[in-house]
Every structure is written in C-alpha cells, then in structure tokens.
Amino acid sequence: MTSTAHAVSSRSARAFGLVDAMVLIAATAVGFASYRVCKDSWAGLGGIPLFRNSNTWLIAFLYRATTWASLWLVPWTVALLLLSLRRPRAPLRLLARQPGFVATVASTLLFALGAAEIFLVLAVRYLPTWRLGFLAFFLRPLFLHCAFDLQLPTLMGAAVAGSWLVLFLNGRWRPGRNWLDGLGRALGYCWVALFLISAFLGPWFYLSNHFHVPPNALRAGVR
Fold first, then answer.
1. Are 173 and 1 in contact (CB under 8 A)?
2. Burial class (CB in 10 A: 0-12, 13-18, 19+), 21
3. pLDDT digit string (tens) for 25-53?
C-alpha cells in the first residue's frame, strides 16, 4: 500500500517550471515590500545586528532575525500551498500525508484566520467613520503591527509543530519525493524554529525587564 502510494505520488509530481519560478519570485517581492514598509515606518525596530556590540547581542539578533524572517516565510508558504494544489498533483488523500504539504496548510490556515480577525477589528474601527481608506491597511505597517502583537508568526510555528506531531503519532508521515514537499518541509522547519526561538525569547525578555540577578537587595547585603 505504501509503495503504491509513493508510486502514484511520484507519477503525479511535476517538475519545477517557469510558472513556479514566477510565483516564488513574486512571493519574494512581497517579502521585500513588507520589509521596506516595516523598516521605513516601524519605530523602535531596527535592522538585524550583524556584529556583537553588547552582552545582549545574541538576544537582539534572534529577536530581530525571527521578526524579519516571518515577512518572507508567510508569502513563500502561501505561494507554495497554491503551487502544491496545481495539477498535475497527487490526490489530496496522499498530499495530506506529506509533511511539507501539511506544514503549508496548517500555517496558511492560521494566517488566514488571524488576518480575518485583524481585518474585522479594523473594519469595525474605521467603517463607522465612513473612511473607506481602511482597505489600504494591508499596504501599511498597521496590519503588520497587529499581526506581530497577536504573535501570529509564533502561532503559525506552533500550528506546524502540532500538525506534524499528529501526523507522526498517527503513522501517516510520508515525505513526498518531489521539490514541492521538500521545500514545504524546509519552510516547516523554519516555522518550528521560529516558534521555539520565540518561546525562549518571551520569558527571557520578561525576566530581564522585571527581575535583576542578583536582586538589588542582595547586592546591597553582599556589600
């Protein structure tokens, strides 16, 4: 049964073509456009520090790197899902066993839900004033501000990790032998890494901002 499924998947897989390249290039352009909007309009968040200049360099590097990386991961994930659904392709029941496809579905679904929530909140906020310009918020850092405030990239990484865990525990982990699933797995690894790094940075920032080691009282006692 497994060999038959792999055979069907291999026959249905298509080679990398011009349309695939154009879609991925467009997704990359969306990432650069989002980066430019954030970099020009987002006060308080600078570029990625490439050189060590303080004791907190590693934390700052990881925080900013994961923040900026999600600007490219999102359009690439959505684009890859659309490409995976193009024909010729394997049947959906076989695609649902491929971790790369599952990663793109889980992260894209969560992104769509988060974007819909942000859209509804902003629509309720701006529609009563009859400012139809609220539709342009997708081109402004306001949407990105809301997305990061909701920890949307972190939740997308958690969704990928959870879906992969369910896939593995059910014994349905069947990696596809094609570039689509391979790229999907690579993006999934990036999402999981972003989730794990963010899960570490959150408590670190909280403790560093609210506690001192050793506390000031102990420092005074030691002296």
1. no
2. exposed
3. 999 999 988 888 777 666 445 555 555 56
SS3 43: coil
Half-sphere exposure of 104 (CA within 13 A, CB side): 25
d(CA 150, CA 115) in angstroms, rounded, equals 10
Q: Tell me the pLDDT tens digit for each residue of 2-13.
A: 555 454 455 456
Count of domains for the chain:
1
Handedness of CA 60, 74, 84, 196 (dihedral sign): positive
Query: Residue 1, CB half-sphere, CA atoms under 13 Å: how many?
Result: 3
Both tokens of 113, joined, read 């839900």
Amino acid at 106: A
Q: Residue 84 carries which side chain, given as an amino acid letter?
A: S
**Is residue 107 exposed (0-12), middle (13-18) or buried (19+ Cβ within 10 Å)?**
buried
* Domain interval for residue 204: 2-222
